[in-house]
Prior knowledge:
By secondary structure, this protein is an alpha/beta fold.
Amino acid sequence: MTFYPNERIGLFIDGANLYSAARALDFDIDYRKLLEEFRKRGRLTRANYYTALLENDDYTPIRPLVDWLDYNGFHVVTKAAREYTDENGRRRVKGDMDVEIAVDIVEASNYLDHIILFSGDGDFRKAVEAVQRKGVRVSVVSTLKSQQPMIADDLRRQADNFIELAELGRLVGRERRAREDFVPATPDEDDDA
């Protein structure tokens, strides 16, 4: 990873996508360590975490994480999610934050030098290309080392840098805790990654 001490850095985390990638690699993200790691690499200006939440539930398993992030240096962006039961009878939550992430990345390109996108979703390729035309470097964090790669090839090729989550996990990961009742919001069925 190439970083410059005075560059203004912004983290844009697709919560459901990062959760799935880390789970596929069998670890959890320690968000405190994640902030510390990127603060060492430049001037961390923005750290956004995006997730869909069920608005009608008094409690959802992701709420403690969202609350912790909100009080500890992250700007949390949420929207209402839909709940459904999958073909195996499991409760699922569906929510797509792609538009919110893409718009925020493009707007942030006016004041950032380096955007770090935590997602492997190929739908972000065009947004990445747009901010690169403005002179902003883009690094994408995802994984090729899971059983099924979690990054779209065209997004990886478009990015200035690809950061393998398995390697970053050595710096910001912790042993995975069992969360049998929690299934994060998933992107639309037709997404590339």
